[in-house]
Amino acid sequence: MSTEILIIDDNPDIRNILKDLISDVGYKTRVAANYNQALIEIDKKLPDVAIIDVKLDKGDNDGIELLSHIKNKNKDIPVIIISGHANIEMAVKSLKNGAFEFIQKPFDQERLMNFVNRAVENFNLKNKNKELETKLFHSFDLIGSSPNIEKIKDQINKLSTSESRIFINGPTGSGKELIARKIHKLSKRKKGPFIILNGALLDSKKYEQELFGEEKNNGAISYGALEKASGGILLIDEVTEIPLETQSKILRVLIDQKFKRINGDHDIKVDVRIICSSSLDIKNEIRIGNFREDLFHRLNVFQIDVEPLSNRIMDIPLLVDYFSDKISQNYNLKKFNIDANNHYLINYNWPGNVRELRNLIERIAILGANNDELASNIIKESLKNTNEDNFKVENTLSIPLKEARENFEKEYLTTQLKKFGGNISKTAKFVGMERSALHRKLKGLGVKDLN
Question: What global pTM score does this model have?
Fold first, then answer.
């Protein structure tokens, strides 16, 4: 797709000169002759680069307002400000508001085109970096063969074709955002934006500004997440962190399908599919009064529950192999192997879930790839819990042999059951027992059926 540059100037001669100069080097152009035309062109489709005259038909700072308007929509778009009434104060104000360059009329054509080419390079570089980051994230698949992951894969396929709101519940690092992105990728909104609003990272005073946007006194508009996600999907991550007062306004948006920006006086219609996620027990949050029950029922048309990694140990070998392959590709390394049945990997509690496992594999890729001993030491040092291990040893030494043996058997068989997703037949085969004998042993040890 060729680069498109928007030229905004009330002087037709300047517009034509700029259009000819820019078209001659192969860039597409669009033009606007006044402030209102410029707003229409910007809102219709954002350009890759904009060239804006400071003074148009509305006032002395038209160009600065349009600069702010573009930057509120996409801060990465380079804007070159031009002016026939330039002074140092105006130049400083332009650059302070995010202008890429400031140039005075009459301008040197070669100098202007140098600015334009640099602006295009800047925009393309930022886009390339974004694409690489997105590709890295999107390249990850939902990996696992545990009953929980198989169920989630089936839910993703079914829910992607609908417009229903979804609530994803699961611990931190378990893959909630990845699930939401997979739904977006398979949905009819896949060509629309995917916007994330993280409730845990926002200043409590800025929730409504971030959600609904704001109309400022100078006429500039700050767009909120609801408008940015128009035609696509809005993921509200850690939705339970949103204050109750704002929750009531979100509920009203869901009911009315419209809202007003802060300080705005006209309704904005909503065309967005909302997915919410939380790492907290949402029903407990409702019980203690931190989250509105009526809002939860509006958001929770369908619920996806992601279990912690410690509950689906059978996924660990698959994840280890998958991340080893992906990360070695990303770092341009030879494929390295990790013993996926390493004692530490299988018995660790994984409080950071899949994200923690991925970070561990990345650490090994950087520090210990193709060195089995070093990789094993990185795993050991990263995952060992000295206090817990000492407690287990001291506790074991202080009890009779029979009780210690029972404790070991219980922990061992529970771990193996998790490893095989609660499948008794596979577990029995692995530990070398008859299926019926394993049933009796588990019952005798008080181990509950994981299914």
Answer: 0.62
